[in-house]
Design a protein that fits this description.
The chain has 125 residues and is α+β, with helices and mostly antiparallel strands. It is built from 4 helices and 5 strands. The protein starts with 11 loop residues before the first helix and ends with a helix.
């Protein structure tokens, strides 16, 4: 049975010798900061272009720019996830659900993992 690597694993010495690929989400080591790994080049092909007309940047500046970009992206994803989570908490009621008590399709509220309509929630316990 063949095994597949699903996670890139970096040793301590790799993190000091090599930088990660410049594309977000790829942790494949590359020799030059800001460079793209071979697997990303193969995957994205002509969509990637090399800019030779830009200013020569210090490797530390490239690392700082990529870290700032990645931090900004992570912050945006966190904000988006928080917004989605807040919207899901607010809208506990959902249309076209089957109430577990009366078996009617109505606008119900999720209670304890089951859907209850307003009429059944008003029933005495």
């Amino acid at each position: 049975m063949a095994t597949t690597r699903t996670e890139s694993h970096q040793c301590d010495w790799q993190s000091t010798l090599f930088d990660d690929c410049a594309l977000p989400g790829c942790a494949t080591p590359v020799a030059v900061p800001g460079d793209v790994c071979q697997s990303c080049r193969a995957a994205f092909g002509d969509m990637l272009t090399v800019r030779a007309d830009g200013p020569d940047l210090d490797p530390e500046q490239v690392r700082a720019d990529l870290a700032a970009r990645d931090a900004s992206t992570r912050d945006q994803y966190r904000a988006q996830a928080a917004t989605v989570a807040a919207a899901q908490q607010v809208s506990a009621r959902k249309r076209n659900q089957i109430c577990w008590l009366c078996n009617e399709r109505r606008t119900c509220t999720s209670t304890g993992g089951r859907w209850e309509c307003t009429d059944c929630q008003a029933l005495p316990v």
